[in-house]
Structures are given as C-alpha cells and as structure tokens.
Amino acid sequence: MEPVHIEPFFAALAAANPEPETELEYKSDFELLCAVLLSAQATDVSVNRATRTLFAAASTPAQMLALGLEGVQAHIQSIGLYRSKARHLLQTCQLLIERHGGQVPRSRAALEALPGVGRKTANVVLNVAFGEPTLAVDTHVFRLANRSGLAPGRTPLEVEHGLLARIPPAYLRHAHNWLILHGRYVCRARAPLCGQCHVVAWCDSAPPNAAASAPPRP
Ligand code: SF4
C-alpha cells in the first residue's frame, strides 16, 4: 500500500465507525484484563458467555482468589485451555494484590510480568483501559495488515512494528479496534467481503471491479 493511501484508508474506517469498541464485556480494568487473558484462542462470544457468571461471582482480585481453582474452572470450562487459564488468572490476581494494590498496572513491563499475560494481552489492556496508542496483532489484524498491504510482515511483532510506524498518530488510539472489527466481519479469512469493504479503494488485494460494487466512501 502506498504511504499516501494510509490516511484515507483510516479516514474511511473512522467515518464508518467513529468510536469502535472491543466486543469483550467488562465493567472495570480488572475485568478487562481477565477477559483478555481468557480470550487467547477463544472467541469473544465464548468468553463473554463465561465471564457473565464469573464476574457476577467475583469482580475483584480478592474475590477471584476466594473462588479458588475449582470455582473459577466451573465458570470458564466452556473455553479452550480453561485449566491453565484458571491457574494463570489466580496467579495474576495474587500478584495484582501483592505488587499493585489490587489494581491493574499501566505499564507494559508490569503487565507482561503477570502469568498468562503476553505482549498481545498487554497491548489490548494498555489501549482499551488506558487509551495508550498500542496495537495488539491478533489473527484478524495480522491477516488484514498483510492482505491489504498496510503493514506486511511474517510475524505478529513485525506487523505490529510496521503498523505503529505507518499509521498516522491521529488514528493510533482506535486503530486496534478498527482493524480487529474490519478483519473479523469484512476482511474475513475465507471469502472476504470486498464488495462491502469501505477501504477497497486502497487495498492491495482488492479484486478487479470490487470498488464498483463497494459501498460509497463515507
Ligand atoms: S478489499 Fe477485500 S481484501 Fe482488501 S481489505 Fe477489503 S475485504 Fe479485505
């Protein structure tokens, strides 16, 4: 993608969805951290189904610890890898209390020191909870960045660095959610909906004539 096309690419995503939001359900920074931790290799829908009952039973690190391993597992057993996720969740709660007064830290190093919290989870929490211009590269963002030519790369980290270098600063705050939602619902893994794509005019992989049937530019 030509550098000159990146601004209109994001302007179109912004016009179509000015305030994009994560589809994970949460009421606090702690619940967001838990939901993102649980979402690895799971859909947001399945995580929300589990956390509705989990957060009703425990919405603080102390309450989560009081539930115990079997108690947490009982709420999240429909999610893949639930045994290790439950263990990591409780270890994380213990460290939040010991190191951070029960609060979610606003620091990449502190977040990545928590069990089960990797770079992607830290990026989501820093962006969604604290408004930091970080960019989590999940499967949808990775696919869209490569397919469109926005920031091609062989690894999520390569794509993340490419995106951070190429996205105009004014769009960085919401870029994470715009790209995830666009990748999830429009630039799908199988059968991307190029005919309904707001950024078809700037995409390297747009099929011939797709722009003709695409929605008008916002
Ligand atoms: S034009 Fe097609 S391939 Fe390009 S971003 Fe849109 S949906 Fe994806």
CATH topology of the largest domain: Endonuclease III, domain 1
Provide mean pLDDT, rounded: 94
* Span of the ends, CA to CA: 20 Å
The Rg value, from CA coordinates, equals 19 Å
Unreliable stretches:
none
Q: What's the total count of β strands?
A: 0
β-strand percent reads: under 5%
Q: What is the fourth-level CATH superfamily of the largest domain? A: Hypothetical protein, domain 2
Order of helices and strands: HHHHHHHHHHH
- Given this structure, which CATH class of the largest domain is correct? Mainly Alpha
Keywords: 4Fe-4S, DNA damage, DNA repair, DNA-binding, Endonuclease, Glycosidase, Hydrolase, Iron, Iron-sulfur, Lyase, Metal-binding, Nuclease
Organism: Serpentinimonas maccroryi
EC number: 4.2.99.18
Cofactor: [4Fe-4S] cluster
Provide a descriptive summary of the structure in words.
InterPro entries: DNA_glycosylase, Endonuclease-III-like_CS2, HhH-GPD_domain, HhH_base_excis_C, HhH_motif, Nth. Keywords: 4Fe-4S, DNA damage, DNA repair, DNA-binding, Endonuclease, Glycosidase, Hydrolase, Iron, Iron-sulfur, Lyase, Metal-binding, Nuclease. Residues 38-185 form the HhH-GPD domain. With 218 residues, the chain is mostly helical. It folds into 2 domains: 3-20 and 135-213, Helix-hairpin-Helix base-excision DNA repair enzymes (C-terminal) (Endonuclease Iii, domain 2); 29-128, Orthogonal Bundle (Endonuclease III, domain 1), CATH 1.10.340.30. 60% of the residues lie in helices and 0% in strands. It is built from 11 helices and no strands. It has helices at 3-16, 29-38, 44-57, 61-76, 82-100, 108-112, 119-128, 139-148, 156-166, 169-185, 210-213. The structure holds iron/sulfur cluster.
